[in-house]
Write a structure and sequence with these properties.
The structure is a single chain. With 117 residues, the protein is of the alpha+beta class. The chain has one domain: Gyrase A, domain 2. It has three helices and four strands. A four-stranded antiparallel beta sheet has the order 1-2-4-3, covered by helices on one side. α2 packs antiparallel against α3.
Length: 117
Amino acid sequence: MTELNQERCVACRRDSPPATSQDVEELHPQVSQWDLITEDGISKLDRTFSFPNFQEALDFTNSLGTLAEEEGHHPRLVTEWGRVSVTWWTHKIRNLHRNDFIMAAKSDEIFQVSNPQ
């Protein structure tokens, strides 16, 4: 199986199938630091990343923005002092899609590169 962070998002249409429960069981362990949440009946992936200051949080936000534009798939981003909350879901289908797991993995990779430990 390909690493999720090496995959590219595919364009979704309103009739694109959402991730099945089996898909979620397979994909979620690959982005295990992400919470599976439901808001307004919509399944989403959610994670808050911590930073030592606002500038690093903002830099991370901007890197995610660049990635989102490149992939054509956009998250909800909330940037605050010392943290960035990121939520992925596929707006067109109002549910999770493989693209969301791909983008969660790519978000993790950006975080690891910017915050080596």
